[in-house]
């Protein structure tokens, strides 16, 4: 009898393992807002213990050269979901109330590709790719959506929730922030207290989705709206860190990641889930002690120096992706779509994309080099501001906001960001990750090589700084 039970238990255990590995993997993307390269304990943050981010680092691979396509909300999210440079698909900046810009429904997203593959799909959190129906997530491949249409500071109130009374303030005419379910408004957010509930609410909805769909492949996109200002830690975490509200928010986000990890383990789908955790762009440094850290890289959000585009990335897939690994090849958020498609067997979009498949390199990082050597740093509507080739970076002349020239704000008030003229410069990121030492006179051949790549970018995508129109760009959607 004991021998029979032992055999039975072995068969049951084998069935569970087979069930986890015999079907295509679940996919989860957790995307944070304005989280800088240095904001997490595995990337050097001090003063806030983050056991769940530490777990991600131990059980997955941590990336050190992961760049987003543009260092700002809407553009970064468009690149993530479509695998394209945002300017290729007509997207730029951060959509504000009244803007008619939206992601074109003709663009295929990670969600639509996986839905066609039979996946259940859901988005929770901040959207920021269209302000009105039919430009919300359920029209781009997501079966469900609970969240906010854009950043939580886009409302007619200050960081404490007080109503803006100055008619000259751009926020004066903005509508109240809404909470959406699908296409419908289910709540209106008028107080700071209401905003403190977002992280918990979004986490709980994500956990429920995992529980309800553990028997079939699913794709979950959890886009938390913090640590973007105004900081809004819940009562459970408020005052709990050494770093004030910013540290409190980071503790709560660490808790959120832990809840996702726990849900996967409880549902026994831990080993069959590809978990990707990243940020949309670097920190909004002019908010001082309410902003994060660029980890020593130059500048931050809305700037094409490394502090604006290089962000944390963890990829965890037990038994597939190296545990405790560090990946130092150049990668971008555009590369996630084709990599996910390769991992799941989903088709690639019919239209041309800019992302490349990293799966072979992620599965065998010691023997397969990453497939990307080149990256274009665009910003504004269509300004080509820099080029990266391997470990070299050419910064092209442009005008930009500069945090290094600013006096930062404090306690939720943002300091003004002066504009500066940025000159032509060549940096060797292998020896100078802070982009402090221009070496163009020492390496004229490298300078010429990167200038040639810049010309290729202008021909393909255009460049407003040199009045060039790209040959291969598509139109954004329009809600007008």
From TrEMBL:
Superkingdom as given in the UniProt entry: Bacteria
Endpoints of the signal sequence: 1-19
Residues that span the membrane, as ranges: none
Record region (Disordered): 460-480
PROSITE patterns, sorted: SULFATASE_2 (PS00149)
Keyword flag Transcription: no
Molecular function GO terms recorded: arylsulfatase activity; metal ion binding
UniProt keyword terms in alphabetical order: Calcium, Hydrolase, Metal-binding, Signal
Domain Sulfatase N-terminal: 25-345
InterPro entries membership: Sulfatase, Sulfatase_CS, Sulfatase_N
Record's keyword annotation contains Metal-binding: yes
Family: Belongs to the sulfatase family.
Record-linked PANTHER family: ARYLSULFATASE FAMILY MEMBER, ENDO-4-O-SULFATASE
Protein name as annotated: Sulfatase
Organism: Pinibacter aurantiacus
């Amino acid at each position: 009898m004991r021998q029979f039970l032992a055999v039975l238990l072995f068969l049951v255990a084998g069935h569970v393992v087979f069930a986890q590995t015999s079907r295509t993997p679940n996919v989860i993307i957790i995307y944070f807002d304005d989280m800088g390269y240095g904001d997490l304990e595995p990337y050097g943050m001090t003063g806030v213990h983050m056991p769940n981010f530490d777990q991600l680092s131990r059980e997955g691979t941590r990336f050190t050269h992961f760049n987003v396509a543009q260092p700002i909300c809407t553009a970064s999210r468009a690149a993530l979901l479509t695998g394209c440079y945002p300017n290729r698909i007509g997207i730029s900046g951060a959509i504000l109330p009244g803007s008619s810009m939206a992601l074109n429904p003709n663009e295929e997203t990670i969600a639509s590709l996986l839905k066609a593959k039979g996946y259940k799909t859901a988005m929770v959190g901040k959207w920021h790719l269209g302000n009105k129906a039919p430009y919300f997530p359920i029209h781009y491949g997501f079966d469900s959506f609970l969240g906010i249409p854009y950043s939580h500071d886009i409302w007619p109130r200050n960081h404490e929730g007080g109503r803006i009374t100055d008619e000259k303030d751009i926020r004066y005419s903005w509508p109240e922030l809404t909470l959406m379910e699908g296409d419908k408004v289910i709540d209106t957010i008028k107080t700071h207290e209401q905003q403190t509930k977002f992280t918990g609410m979004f986490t709980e909805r994500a956990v429920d989705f995992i529980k309800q769909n553990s028997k079939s492949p699913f794709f979950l996109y959890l886009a938390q709206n913090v640590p973007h200002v105004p900081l809004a830690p819940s009562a459970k975490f408020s005052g709990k860190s050494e770093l004030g509200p910013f540290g409190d928010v980071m503790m709560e986000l660490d808790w959120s990641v832990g809840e996702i990890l726990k849900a996967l383990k409880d549902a026994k789908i831990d080993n069959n889930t590809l978990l990707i955790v990243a940020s949309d762009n670097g920190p909004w440094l002019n908010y001082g002690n309410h902003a994060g850290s660029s980890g020593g890289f130059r500048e931050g959000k809305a700037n094409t120096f490394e502090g604006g585009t290089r962000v944390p990335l963890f990829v965890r897939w037990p038994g597939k992706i190296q545990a405790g690994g560090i990946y130092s090849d150049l990668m971008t958020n555009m590369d996630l779509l084709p990599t996910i498609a390769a991992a799941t067997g989903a088709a690639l979009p019919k239209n041309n994309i800019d992302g490349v498949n990293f799966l072979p390199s992620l599965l065998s990082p010691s023997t397969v080099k990453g497939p990307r050597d080149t990256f274009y740093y665009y910003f504004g509507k269509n300004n080509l501001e820099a080029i990266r080739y391997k470990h070299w970076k050419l910064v092209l002349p442009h005008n930009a906001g500069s945090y290094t020239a600013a006096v930062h704000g404090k306690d939720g008030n943002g300091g003004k960001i002066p504009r500066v003229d940025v000159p032509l410069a060549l940096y060797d990121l292998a020896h100078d990750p802070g982009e402090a030492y221009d070496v163009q006179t020492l390496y004229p051949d490298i300078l010429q090589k990167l200038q040639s790549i810049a010309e290729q970018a202008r021909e393909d995508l255009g460049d407003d700084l040199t009045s060039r129109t790209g040959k291969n760009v598509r139109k954004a959607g329009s809600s007008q």
